[in-house]
Amino acid sequence: MPFCHFSRVYKGTSWADLKANEQLQLSRKCKKMEYAELISILVDQEEFDLICNDVSSARSCYQKYTHQSIATLDGKWKCIIIKNQHSKQKIILYTAGRLYPLYAAVSE
Fold first, then answer.
1. Cα distances (Å, whole numbers) of residue 82 to 17, 26, 31, 73
2. Does position 61 have pLDDT exceeding 90, yes or no?
3. Separation of alpha carbons 34 and 77, rounded Å
4. DSSP string over 10-34
5. Percent share of the chain, pLDDT over 70
6. Which of 20, 37, 60, 64 lies in the 20 to 30 Å Cα band around 27?
7. CA-CA distance, 65 to 48, in Å (whole number)?
8. In the predicted model, is pLDDT for residue 93 greater than 80?
9. Which residues of 24-63 are buried (b: 16+ CB within 10 A; e: fewer)?
10. Number of domains making up the chain
11. In this structure, are strands 33-43 and 77-84 parallel, antiparallel, or unpaired?
12. For residue 57, what is the enclosing H or E element?
């Protein structure tokens, strides 16, 4: 199972915000959280940039999976992974069954 540092998503949260929060968590020696991969979606650079500019906005590329992004019986979050098809960058989203992301993380 993969691990990462998640951050609460607020209106207008961007890739840079998530990256800054990750650095803050690392400096405070916060533990990474284990999660389960619900679905992995490959998107082009343009779509990835749109998502990165405002993670809080619901996007059609993952909308049909949001209701399944909930915790497992053992407490692991089932996350939607958005991958950039031109790099190793990805955004990990947890919606808690809502239409928009509640928590998110980044990976490069």
1. 17, 23, 23, 24
2. yes
3. 8
4. -TT--HHHHHHHHHHHHHTTPPPEE
5. 100
6. 37
7. 17
8. yes
9. ebeeeeeeebebeebeebebeeebbeebbeebeeebeebe
10. 1
11. parallel
12. none
Q: Is the pLDDT of residue 1 over 80?
A: no
Judged by DSSP in three states, 79 sits in strand
Per the document, the length of the chain is 108
**Residue 20 belongs to domain spanning:** 3-107
Residue 63: HSE in the Cβ half-sphere, 13 Å Cα cutoff: 5
Can you state the percent helix, strand and coil of the chain, rounding each to 5? 25, 30, 45
What whole-number distance in Å separates Cα of residue 36 and Cα of residue 13?
A: 23
